[in-house]
Amino acid sequence: MKTLLELVRIVTKNRIRRIELLGKANDNENKLMNLYDALSTGAARTDKEAMEFLYGPGGKYSSYRSLKSILKKRLLNSLLFINLSDTSLNDQERAYYRCHKDWAAVRVLLRMGGRQAAIRLAEKALRRARRFDLTEISVQASQVLRFHYGARLGNLKKMEEYNRIHKRYARAWRFESLAEEYYTLLVASYISERAAKADANKIALAYYEELKGAMAEYQTYRLLFLGHLIRIIAYRSVNDYKRTVESCQEAIRAFEAKDYEVKTPIYTFLHQQILAHIQLRQFEKGEDTARKAAQLIPAGTVNWFVNMEMLLILSLHTRQYQRALEVFQQATSHKGYERLREVDKEQWRINGAYIHFLLEAGRASAGEDQVRLRKFRLARFLNEVPVFSRDKQGMNVAILIIQTLFLIIKKRYGEAIDRIDAINKYRVRYLVKDKALKRSNFFVKMLLQIPLCSFHKEAVIRKSEQYYNKLKAIPLEVANQTHGIEIIPYEDLWAFVLETLEPRFYKGRR
After folding, report:
1. Domain extent at residue 470
2. Last residue of a domain, which of 174, 189, 208?
3. Shared domain check, 30 and 58
4. pTM listed for this prediction
5. How many domains is the chain built from?
6. Per-position DSSP letters for 38-54, written without gaps between them
7. 188: exposed, middle or buried (C-beta count within 10 Å: 0-12, 13-18, 19+)?
8. pLDDT confidence bin for 188, thresholds 50/70/90
9. Which residues contact 61 (CB under 8 A, 6 or more apart)?
10. 368 occurs within a structural domain
11. Residue 299 above 80 pLDDT?
């Protein structure tokens, strides 16, 4: 079902003409269109829902499976009819779809004996491919044209022209392939954490030095994109965020110099730059970068929400709490929010919990002219984040911490005491051994001192000091933890919590 839903989304998004979907008006064709409509509107999201939608509770799975198979084939065929006049596509994107569509036609025509039509189309595809840095099409089209004018027509001048083109783009394509190999090796090492950060830095810089000359000579879209990403990985791996920003800016200038509009690479490098500004606590520069990124993407799209989340985290990490509240309200009140995947909504709910904590701590205030926030209820929040609650070494850390913070700041001390054993068992099992979660481990140990010291402020400060010093010894900018876990820096959260404690012991149940 995931594959079918993906195809439906692409066909619907690109407003592809329903040439292959339409058929004779019989019962089976009507059911086919009903299935497409149900999937495209969200009326059915699973096989069970789709079956019941079409056949009722007693439908046969064999009939549904056959219909599903037919729809999948027709959707794949319909991809050839993508609407290239769509105003959301820029010239480079249109060229990409047109070239690949035309090149598929060239191969079919050559196979079926339509050589004259194939050659005219290949020449057209090559001109467009060279204009828009589509290296692979340039390699293949020039190869076909070299053979045609040399072996078939004996036109030496044309053959030599296409031979020069082919050799140049073949070399560029080899460097693109090499850059992709190097980038993949680096990312795979990051995911498996096999490589030490210092090693990753040295390896990535060596890769970049090997590619740098080719990047200057060929300047193709894919080579520039992957080469600059490799350089950024080199600096991020050792937390050199100043050079990360400089590398992002250089990459952006390279794509802005193109004589056609480029969006995706520029947005990607702006996104990386925002992450670096977060670590450098550069709010104004980060907000300016986020504003530039927002201009490249329509409001309400997935990337727009990603950009808004970066702006939210930037605001929280630079103590611009009122701005963080505004960003959160703007994002979650947008009509596109309801179309987000459930896992993406969970991330925003976690962010929202920290926003509510700031409101509770008096660090931000919701004005009458702002979008009204739904009243925060801890129990409801915990029920609304089932996916991340299972991510024991990921976002569940942020959930556990905000839950504890609310119990303390709301002075629900009895519940906080009841949670001590469970929290400590979680800490020992999931946080102690993971080097990337050292800061989280120390912060949770600090929080545990609060109920252990019966919520007495001075006692808490004294007992937690050793863990606070260990936390400070691993600044956020050098911690190798997953992005997003520390939504608000732990040092700031700790200060807010201490402000709520009093110089007396809580004498509730032990």
Report:
1. 414-510
2. 174
3. yes
4. 0.81
5. 3
6. HHHHTS--SHHHHHHHH
7. exposed
8. confident
9. 51
10. no
11. yes
